[in-house]
Amino acid sequence: MIRSEILREIAPILRDQLVVCNIGLPSQELHMIDDQPTNFYMLGTMGLSSSIGLGLALAQPKTVIAIDGDGSVLTNLGTLPTIANNVADNYILLIIDNGSYGSTGDQPTYAGKKTRLEAVAAACGCENVVTCQAEETGKVVQAAIDSKKMTIIVSKCESGNIKLPVITKDPVVIRDRFMTAVAS
Amino acid sequence: MRKTGAFKAVSISKKIVDDFVANDVSFITTVPCKQLAGVIDEVEAREEIFHIPANKEDEGMGLCAGAFMGGKRPAIIMQNTAIGVTINTLATLTQFYRMPLPMLISYRGELREPVACQVEMAVHTKALLNQLNIPTYHFHKESDADELDAILKYTFMCNKPVAILTDASFWGGYGDQ
């Protein structure tokens, strides 16, 4: 199973939640599969999905799911101690770990080699870290929502991409639409 | 003299944080600098403010972007060396999505600076902010802080990142150094 297949499978679960989606193909895939006003698409700034999601979760009470990749978490590894030490029980970080930089040509990441992000997250102090296989992602995400406990999910999947268009929506439109959904 | 300097720093820190609170800034991320220690202590002490230290300034700007979209007014407190770290984030997140972000910045490497390396980023600081079209204010004397209230109102009016550079003279020097 590749990332776009995971997103397609969990889209019905994501639809009712606030979602911050990682730069590049993940945002393009989610946008194509199930565009919702409750989705915030990152058009740039690799690495900050988890941070934007945490800030959002700390600022308001609705559940926030930040979708990140192994490469992006490695880019902003300092995010994990910040998450661990600022617990927001309405926050779920879903790391889709395909062991590669998918948007740039599937170059391998260190998470695809010796580094295990679930162990890094636990060592940083994150208390609920769940590792799952791609096929279990929907079930694990739903359980995390229901638990009302901050949860870090590392979903292991195969690398691979589908062909799809870039997002042409204006960033201010994406942001304004999202803020209206957050406040509603 | 040193006592006077310390009292001055405490009262300036209190005034700065009073202005943040008066402008409904309730989410502040910080990356420490010796010059900013007093203001960071004051942020931490205030019940009205959620203080979240960041490990790196671009991470902090991500936190602020999320908090803003969640309905809070954010701010970041950091050193000017962070401009080198955050150019991409300022351009592709804060500016691209048009979000407000007051940046209270210690302007290291200016007059009375004891550490030579700080000068190397100081000489680029205003040029980089200018290149990014970031409105920039420079606090050199204590009375310059009288404008902070207006600067914060301006920031949340125009939805832009705005830089407030605060140099060593503003903070009362470096004590014995």
Automatic annotation (TrEMBL), chain A:
One of its GO terms (biological process) is small molecule metabolic process. CDD domains: TPP_ComE (cd03372). Residues 39-153 form the Thiamine pyrophosphate enzyme TPP-binding domain. It comes from the Bacteria. The keyword Membrane does not apply. Keywords: Decarboxylase, Lyase, Pyruvate. GO terms for molecular function: carboxy-lyase activity; thiamine pyrophosphate binding. This is Sulfopyruvate decarboxylase subunit beta.
UniProtKB/TrEMBL annotation, chain B:
GO terms for molecular function: sulfopyruvate decarboxylase activity; thiamine pyrophosphate binding. InterPro entries: Sulfopyruvate_deCO2ase_alpha, THDP-binding, TPP_dependent_decarboxylase. Keywords: Decarboxylase, Lyase, Pyruvate. The keyword Lyase applies. SUPFAM superfamilies: Thiamin diphosphate-binding fold (THDP-binding) (SSF52518). It comes from the Bacteria. The keyword Lyase applies. PANTHER family: SULFOPYRUVATE DECARBOXYLASE, SULFOPYRUVATE DECARBOXYLASE SUBUNIT ALPHA. This is Sulfopyruvate decarboxylase subunit alpha.
